Design the sequence.
């Protein structure tokens, strides 16, 4: 439709992309350039924290768990998946990986306190469920005002849906993955 409209414009007139769409395109390009560097830095920091490749893998495995909630939120609220939503996914991955670090650190603390392995994993999920859920709810509520903004709305919906669903899945997935990865018997 735009091509037909463009052909019928008077001489000297043209159609250009501008405003928030233009800014979004510029931002997307700069984000794509920095993405590999940021992933590498995240990997280094997580490896320093976990002190193991398997633990690092476990943390990175939880990063995409929020996609389910993020996509559902975008679909339900009819929001576009553009640069701002992509930016929200990057933040969402960090939030979910932080939750995993909290859970795995609690498992380590429980093991150091002398708990048997299976009990340490289960107890870590129970001990950390409340703070993880409450911080997730606080984050979700903090983004509610942004849902009304036409530019930042997709980011808010990605984070609200992704943090909500991703946190619940993480609380179930991480203990199960930990038990499978380290071959813990019930």
Sequence:
């Amino acid at each position: 439709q735009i091509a037909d409209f463009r052909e019928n414009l008077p001489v000297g007139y043209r159609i250009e992309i501008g405003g928030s769409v233009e800014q979004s395109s510029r931002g997307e390009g700069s984000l794509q350039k920095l993405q590999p560097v940021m992933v590498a830095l995240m990997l280094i920091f997580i490896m320093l924290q976990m002190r193991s490749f398997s633990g690092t893998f476990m943390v990175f495995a939880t990063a995409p768990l929020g996609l389910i909630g993020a996509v559902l939120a975008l679909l339900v609220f009819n929001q576009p998946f553009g640069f701002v939503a992509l930016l929200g996914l990057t933040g969402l991955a960090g939030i979910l990986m932080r939750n995993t670090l909290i859970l795995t650190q609690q498992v380590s603390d429980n093991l150091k306190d002398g708990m048997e392995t299976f009990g340490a994993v289960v107890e870590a999920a129970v001990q950390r469920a409340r703070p993880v859920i409450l911080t997730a709810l606080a984050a979700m509520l903090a983004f509610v005002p942004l849902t009304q903004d036409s530019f930042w709305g997709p980011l808010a919906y990605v984070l609200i849906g992704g943090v909500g669903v991703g946190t619940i899945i993480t609380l179930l997935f991480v203990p199960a993955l930990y038990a499978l990865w380290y071959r813990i018997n019930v």
Summary: The domain at 38-181 is CATH 1.20.1640.10 (Multidrug efflux transporter AcrB transmembrane fold). The radius of gyration is 21 Å. The helical segments are 2-7, 19-50, 53-61, 67-76, 83-112, 117-143, 153-181. The mean pLDDT is 90.
